[in-house]
Amino acid sequence: MAKDIGIDLGTANVLIYVQGKGVVLNEPSVVAVDTKTDKVLAVGSEAYRMVGRTPSNIRAIRPLKDGVISDFDVTQEMLSYFINKLSVKGFMSKPNIMICAPTNITEIERKAIMQAAEQSGGGKVYLEYEPKVAAIGAGLDIFKPSGNMVIDMGGGTSDIAILSLGDIVSSHSLRVAGDKMNSEIVASIKNNHGLVIGEHSAEKIKMEIGTAQKNDDPKTMEVRGRDAMSGMPRSIEIDANEIEEVLHETLQQIVNAAIGVLETVPPELASDIIDRGIMLTGGTALLDGIDQLFSEYLKVPVVVSENPLDNVAKGAGELLERMQKKNKK
């Protein structure tokens, strides 16, 4: 019998939750393609290692942009590869799939995501909004008549939502998140230090010394790249406070969007949020000091969920299980 699965189809990573097993797959959303033959050479972690290191006939493609599909065929190939890798199909049956999307997607984008899941080996495919499943995966009980607020910050999008009675009351989605931060780090290192670095290096800088708040004693890190003038390899040292300045504007955009969502909710739900606080999920929630930054501006307690990277996939799987139990009754 096929095992049902929850999929977090992220711009940066794909995570898959298998019923009864939990989150069993977490790989980068990257596919390496031979441009001469259009043949897929590698998917996931193997393809990610090739980014910025390929010969001219091999292209490392990210088939998702800002939380939606930008290359349908490659997305479908990637999903098929991951689903086959997990051996979740039964002898004569296909797994039911719960897949997630940002709150502001169009009907066409929505259909493309569902079609990709169906064609990659899914049986019945359901689509749910990311902040809703992220809240479930983070352990919030969104089915009661009380307000919960979640800010899900991934690679391509940041989704902010207030939930009650199992659904979204108010939400906002920004195409601003971890990937934009990486691009800003690349641009800043080039403009301020005359050093050209790649996406990998920017991600590493963000993870190792990235911070949402300035420190008196900032961490430092050696960064290697290519000199913009001479073209020769060179290394520099940067500190966390410099990265805070680079990320400041992007983080401020997410904070302002969260303030905007809070301003639209009924007073009863607002008082629930003061009591319960706000839950941060998604990979960008791992940025040092981000909870304090939000708390400072939003004037309510803010906590980072226990496993922010897994929340969407886990919540998708749990919501699918809940729906099936309901249907059996």
UniProtKB/TrEMBL annotation:
Q: Which InterPro entries match?
A: ATPase_NBD (IPR043129), MreB (IPR004753), MreB_MamK-like (IPR056546)
Principal place of residence: cytoplasm
Keyword Electron transport attributed: no
**Compartments, as annotated in UniProt:** Cytoplasm
Provide a GO biological process annotation.
cell morphogenesis
Which Gene Ontology cellular component terms are annotated?
cytoplasm
Pfam families assigned to the protein according to its UniProt record, in alphabetical order = MreB_Mbl
Which Gene Ontology terms cover its molecular function? ATP binding
Keyword rRNA-binding found: no
Q: Which UniProt keywords apply?
A: ATP-binding, Cell shape, Cytoplasm, Nucleotide-binding
Q: Per UniProt, where does ATP bind?
A: 11-13, 155-157, 203-206
Instruction: Report quaternary structure and partners.
Output: Forms polymers.
What is known about what this protein does?
Forms membrane-associated dynamic filaments that are essential for cell shape determination. Acts by regulating cell wall synthesis and cell elongation, and thus cell shape. A feedback loop between cell geometry and MreB localization may maintain elongated cell shape by targeting cell wall growth to regions of negative cell wall curvature.
Record family assignment: Belongs to the FtsA/MreB family.
Q: What is this protein called?
A: Cell shape-determining protein MreB
Species for this entry: Paucilactobacillus hokkaidonensis JCM 18461
Classification from the root reads: Bacteria, Bacillati, Bacillota, Bacilli, Lactobacillales
